[in-house]
Design brief:
The complex is a heterodimer of chains A (407) and B (308). Chain A is α+β, with helices and mostly antiparallel strands and 407 residues long. Chain A is built from 13 helices and 19 strands. In chain A, a hairpin with a 4-residue loop joins strand 11 (214-225) and strand 12 (230-232). Chain A is elongated. In chain B, helix 3 packs parallel to helix 4 (120-131), helix 6 runs parallel beside helix 7 (232-243) and helix 7 runs parallel beside helix 8. Chain B contains 9 helices and 14 strands. With 308 residues, chain B is an alpha/beta fold. Chain B is globular and about 55 Å long. The mean pLDDT of chain B is 95. In chain B, strand 1 (10-14), helix 1 (18-30) and strand 2 (33-38) form a beta-alpha-beta unit. Helix content of chain B is 32%, strand content 24%. Chain B starts with 9 loop residues before the first strand and ends with a helix. Classes of the chains: A alpha+beta (407), B alpha/beta (308). At the A-B interface, helix 9 and helix 13 of A face helix 4 and helix 5 of B.
Chain lengths: 407, 308
């Protein structure tokens, strides 16, 4: 589960990890009203207005409605013009940013609507660094990564200059050890007050990652200020879904407006669903088989409209819900049901399909491929239903049939 | 011959809720030597299993079975009383990592964890705990391990399997059934099929399984079924190049999966441009592995690999 930058910074601040002062706002009036108290508290007439969406690349991203405007804007007007000038510029920017669509490298061409801004104090930056805590699957441990190349995509650093990324594994029993934090801080070239603050920051962030069950914390850039302070200028945090039950406070931070409505509905039925751009809807049992079904649709020349795993123990209700979700997508011109019944019996699935079609109707061609337990019974139920269901011998046959039928 | 389990493997079960009971029953019906169960608050009782024998399993049995499994307080007690060497875990996610560690501490040689949805941090701890012990963990979030006609540990349907020549190792459940079904149809059968699970932190990986199959005289070839995310398939490709003398076929799911989206399994995600199906397929082909272009061609790919 992803959260916004301002929420990540709240969680960090509550754990004593330095972040800039900031105020989240959802309207132009709130944005303008936040300027004066923020400047008073920070003592810095410069403020920054940052779009809050669940995607990176905001600074370089541009608004669809305002092609010359980026997703993150520094307001310098307060330096010479005072608070009123800062307010004026914030009013102008917030009016353009709020409700507009921000397109970044991570949002795709459709972009994401900006519903919230984060007004943050300006920071006097001396150096930009990189810090993250992420699971290393090979090591089966969380690993802290740092780099002197802050502010750029870490994948680019890893590809071009891998020697500039330093890492330390977090022992699951002991946590990040003091000497590891010191080594990382020295590796970043920190000294004096910045060194001490850096060690503290790294240690606290590693502890927060473990405590909060994050699957990623990325601070890019981590900045060193002119007076040797170390703080998170940006913060990206996402949480491991299986551990969310342990963190009700984090669950409360879920922003449903950032997620696809159909995907939310599917998850309420225990279905795993991901919307894609194609025309062939799929319903499959098992995640691997569901991915393979998408692949084979593409292989025969079609485009899958979704990933949908009904799970190992789906009941009639889930099959019906899956049907409704698939058929609601206006791009869907055909549906391919691919079930390998193991524990799940083919006759149960067939009955679920027949009932679901009876309930929601069938406007598009439907191809069903059944294999496994009670296959003959399942086929018989489909044949005797009187519904216009095409039967497939195997996955490839099913994919070809649905592609032809949907043309 | 086979790997990990055979007709003599004695198995206990941790977790005797609805799921645990259901799958223990199918295991007993298959002919697996289930010898006990662990349930802290029901120790001293017995759990009764009876019904019609699954004749696709261990041959030479009567048409019905009746088994009474004793329930123990701890894995250590269960092991001492039954001489079991393997355990299967159906404990709910919040308690499953502890169940794994208890089994390891009791010295179980093989721990098969079926449970789906265990927090990664719990598995990181369990994996650290296992590092200083000799147990082998398979899973979690997997269908289990089966040696056809001898022993079935897990949730896979037994009847699609057939004793034969091919070792199967897979990150996915139903896709494994698909591969097994095709191998059975092709008359190749399986020596042992191992589901290693779809989680990012698991006990046994592809390389571990390739090693076991390489050393098993009965296994003539191996099919591995991978998916997007991580680099386990690339590691397997490297190991195959350096050590594997038996033919290997593969299928990788997720060619069309979008970046940054978790495709059902916690481990099936392309992040930062890494873990794509294309990279994995290229690495495997470079290692001389026959990669099936579609999931319908897995059996054919294995035949092609065997033909050299």
């Amino acid at each position: 589960m992803k959260i916004h930058e301002f929420q990540a910074k709240e969680l960090m601040q509550a754990r004593g990890i330095p972040v800039p002062l900031g105020i989240p706002v959802t309207s132009v009036a709130e944005a303008v009203a936040a300027v004066e108290p923020l400047i008073e508290r920070s003592g810095n007439p410069v403020v920054v207005l940052k779009s809050q969406i669940h995607a990176g690349g905001r600074g370089k991203g541009r608004f669809a409605e305002h092609p010359d405007l980026g997703g993150v804007n520094v307001v310098l007007e307060g330096k010479d013009g005072g608070v009123e000038a800062a307010k004026g510029r914030v009013r102008e920017l917030a009016a353009k940013m709020l409700g507009s669509t921000l397109v970044t490298v991570q949002t795709g061409p459709a972009g994401k609507k900006v519903n919230r801004l984060y007004l943050e104090q300006g920071i006097d930056i001396a150096r930009e660094l990189y810090l993250s805590v992420v699971l290393d699957r090979g090591a089966s441990r969380n690993v802290v990564m740092v780099s002197t190349e802050g502010g750029t995509e870490i994948e680019e650093v890893a590809a071009a200059t891998p020697e500039k990324i330093l890492r330390a594994e977090i022992d699951p029993g002991l946590g990040l050890l003091d000497f590891q934090a010191r080594e990382l801080a020295f590796g970043l070239g920190l000294d004096g007050a910045a060194y001490k603050n850096g060690v503290k920051f790294i240690t606290a962030l590693a502890a927060a990652a473990v405590e909060l069950d994050t699957d990623l914390i990325e601070i890019n850039p981590l900045v060193v200020t002119a007076d040797g302070g170390v703080m998170a200028l940006d913060a990206k945090m996402s949480f491991e879904a299986n551990a969310l039950y342990r963190h009700p406070d984090v669950q409360d931070m879920r922003d449903l407006s950032e997620e696809d409505a159909a995907e939310i509905e599917a998850s309420n039925y225990g279905l795993s669903f991901i919307k894609l751009d194609g025309t062939i809807g799929c319903m499959v049992n098992g995640a691997g088989l569901a991915m393979a079904t998408m692949d084979i649709i593409k292989y025969v020349g079609g485009e899958p409209a979704n990933f949908l795993d009904v799970g190992g123990g789906a009941e009639k209700e889930q099959v019906a819900a899956a049907f409704k979700i698939i058929t609601r997508d206006p791009n869907v011109r055909g549906i391919f049901v691919n079930i390998f019944g193991g524990i799940m019996k083919c006759d149960t699935i067939a009955q679920g399909i027949v009932d679901a079609v009876g309930e929601v109707g069938l406007q598009t061609p439907l191809v069903v491929r059944l294999e496994g337990t009670n296959i003959d019974l399942g086929k018989q139920i489909l044949d005797e239903s009187g519904l216009n269901i095409l039967s497939a011998a195997d996955m490839k046959d099913g994919a070809q049939k649905i592609l032809e039928a949907s043309r | 011959m086979s790997v990990l389990i055979d007709r003599n493997t004695r198995v206990i079960v941790q977790g005797m809720g609805k799921t645990g009971r259901f799958h223990t029953d199918t295991a007993v019906a298959y002919g697996t030597r289930m010898v006990g169960a662990v349930h802290p608050s029901r120790a001293g009782q017995t759990e009764v299993f009876e019904g019609a024998t699954d004749h696709s399993g261990v041959p030479g049995r009567g048409d019905t079975y009746h088994e009474e499994l004793p329930i123990f307080r701890t894995v250590r007690e269960a092991r001492a009383a039954t001489d079991a060497t393997a355990t299967v875990i159906y404990v709910p996610p919040p308690f499953a990592a502890d169940a794994i560690m208890e089994a390891a501490d009791a010295g179980m040689e093989l721990i098969v964890c079926i449970t789906e949805g265990i927090p990664v941090a719990d598995m990181v701890k369990a994996k650290g705990y296992l590092a200083s012990r000799s147990s082998r963990l398979v899973g979690p979030n997997c269908p289990g391990v089966i040696t056809p006609g001898e022993c079935k540990i897990g949730i896979m349907p037994g009847y699609i399997h057939e004793a034969g020549r091919i070792g199967v190792v897979s990150r996915s459940g139903t896709l494994t059934y698909e591969a097994v079904h095709q191998l059975t149809q092709a008359g190749l059968g399986q020596t042992t099929a191992i589901g290693i699970g779809g989680d990012p932190v698991n006990g046994t990986n592809f390389v571990d399984c390739l090693k076991m199959f390489q050393d098993d005289p009965a296994t003539e070839g191996v099919i591995m079924i991978g998916e997007i995310g991580g680099s386990a398939e690339e590691d397997a490709a490297k190991w195959t190049t350096e050590h594997m003398t038996k033919p290997v076929a593969a299928f990788i799911a997720g060619t069309t999966a979008p970046s940054g989206k978790r495709m059902g399994h916690a481990g099936a995600i392309i992040s930062g441009g890494k873990g794509t199906a294309a990279d994995k397929i290229a690495a495997l082909r470079d290692a001389g592995v026959v990669v099936a272009p579609t999931p319908t061609d897995m059996g054919a790919a294995m035949q092609e690999a065997l033909a050299g």
